[in-house]
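Revision sheet: structure tokens.
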Amino acid sequence: MDRTGFLSLISPEGQALLAEVGDIDSKADMVKIVSKLRGKGHPAELVATVLTQVKLRRRAKAKFGEFAERMFFTEEGLEQASRLKVAAIHAGRFRSNGITKIADLGCGIGAETLAFASLDIEVTAIELDEVTAAIATYNLAGFDNVTVEQGDVTKANLEMYQGLFLDPARRDLKDSKTNINKRKYDINDFSPSFDFVLEVARAKPTIVKLGPGMDHKDIPDDAEAVWVSDDGDLVELTLYFGSLRRENIKRAALLLTPTGTHEITSESSERLDAPIGDLGNYLYEPDAAVIRSHLVGDLAEQLGLNIFSNEIAYLSGDKKLSSPWLKGYELLENLVFDRKKLKAYLREKNIGTLEIKKRGADITPEQLRRELDPKGSESATLIVTRVDGAHRVLVVKPL
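Predicted:
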């Protein structure tokens, strides 16, 4: 969204049109809606801007709930914005450490600041992009304890703040072929630079939000690293510095579920490998936060499970377990990975609905499904992976 588009949205006509359009169903005929609005005399550019905003608000409900209906978004801003439940964890860490005045450096559309301000933390939110800063100002207008500034965070005077929050930009421009924003995992591509992030983080208690795909070798030794999963969706890596770090915790996997919060922690930055053993009667897929935090071995030790092939993050055992960290399967068949034999097996079992999962196998599930051409009234789940180093197809039943 450019400056003109934002000004048109906050104009009386833009606000009235937003209210008129309301919440459009995702299956609505957009062509008819555009024709109807244009027929009423609304300018084409305003109609396009309003409909884009309505669609962004609909997507934003997953992160912001009912707040989304009263906020403005950009495509990039929504993409990088934290979910409110995760931002609330950051805010709670500040609050529990007695930090009540912070700077949100690179605030984007204001998601984190919204959570901080809700806990009565005084926040100065700084954003380089003019339009994004204006959107943050709009989104945070209801808080007296928030000041939004447009400017370069690397030139800001940070002396007056007790703590800092940074969410460096981690996405390139859209790929010319796919039109999709690509994530940045190279710390040299961060904006502001990772050197700047570390410099300020070592000066004051600081929280840094990063992409969960960051290489472990790039994680500073003086930070507590937490990989966060929101009900199975791996959303971020959070680094805590200074007094915000917890004692004797180097790494953690944090899982948020509708029924509660779960955490696995380690005092060491060194990975504990899970023991290698036989493939048992049950197969377990660990949550992505456990895998990315290299805590699979710790989880296996706690639950008495083992892996059955090197570097394959599936756990196994002969006992049926229930854990928020695991998606479990009962093993029905252990087959050779042979496409012709597998196709014959599906015909024999009358399987027409097929879920295909893979790990450690050079296949594309969609392509394999087309090759197998399943037809029948039954369903099955296949896991293509390695067992004792050999490619196998495991026919499983979800627990």
